[in-house]
Amino acid sequence: MEKAGKNQRKNNEKRNLYMSKQSNQNYPRKVFSTSLAVLCALFVAICSILYILYKSWSAKLDFEKWKDYDECGI
Predict the structure, then answer these.
(1) I need a surface site. Which of 3, 16, 41, 51 has the fewest CB within 10 A?
(2) Number of Cα atoms under 13 Å in the Cβ half of residue 39
């Protein structure tokens, strides 16, 4: 019985060592994928804000261009 317990402990230690090595190898991938997702979200947010600003700016220019013709009846 004691021999089986020792073997079990050795197997657990080997498994834990293997799992820790494996998780350390995947750590850079997790950081890269997480940072890539955050960068994409920031890019979309910035593009959305710029689009809204562009549309409001162009609407203002269009309004100023045509405000002289409001009184003409066209």
Answers:
(1) 3
(2) 6
User: Which residue shows structure tokens 């190898």?
Assistant: 25
Task: Give the CA distances from residue 35 to residues 22, 25, 31, 38, 60, in Å, rounded to whole numbers and listed in that order.
Answer: 21, 17, 6, 5, 37
Full-model pTM: 0.54
- C-alpha distances in Å from residue 52, one per residue of 11, 21, 64: 60, 48, 18
Query: Using CA atoms, how far apart are residues 7 and 16, in angstroms rounded to an integer?
Result: 14
